[in-house]
Design goal:
single chain; alpha+beta; 9-stranded antiparallel sheet; two-stranded antiparallel ribbon; 2 helices
Length: 277
Amino acid sequence: MKGLVCLLLLLETFVFVVQHQVDGGLNENETSQQFRSEDGRQNPPQTDTLRDEASTDSQQNYHLCFTDIHAALRELTATVTDQKGNIREQKTINRELTTNIRALETQLREQQTFILEEMNKKNDEISNLTLRQVELRKENRDREIAFSASLMQSGGRYTGPFTTEITLTYRNVFTNIGNAYNPVTGVFTAPLKGAYMFRVSVYGHGGKACAVIVKNGKLMVVAYDDQSKGLSNSSNGVVLILEVGDVVYVRLWSKTRIHDNGNNHNTFSGFLLFPLR
């Protein structure tokens, strides 16, 4: 476009110069006529040869100038036509680019919407997962049930024999997760329904040593040993299905005795295997 503007300026300048030359030639003819009139009055008439030659040269120059103008105009017209074609092509390209840009913007908006929806879904999943984790932690805390204890907190002594059965109280508590075991009464109370593992061990010096695991007043298993001389040692265990509130404890049989000291030979232990519905 800059070249086109420059060409138009040059053409305008050229036309101005030609017009000026033509006007100058006309003025020279008028001046020549005046001079000839004066010369006719003052001098004898001259030949027309010089005048004819000057007129012919002026006409030729005039025709040459206009021929050049027409050529320049044709060239300018061709250039303008090419520029119009280029402009039309550029407009077509711009329209295509605009269409492509709008399509890309639409795709970008769709992708942004999809990403936001997926992020919201993930956030919801994370929130639900977090709530579930909290619930699981609470459930796990409720399921964390285990205890283990021995008879003597310090020193050493015999327990028994007695004329009737007694409930043994294991006061030296090693573990009592969930606080389901009571060391004052020696009774374990099930806080939830489930399968529980219980185990008892007995130890004595000579004679009979016997202890039994009892559920809700009913004998489950017996740990028994009878040595007239030397050490008596026995243990037993059982898996029980307990409802909430069921009780489990250990009883010492009548006419038997056990011995314990700092070595903690006599123990009572239990824990939840898994809950039941």
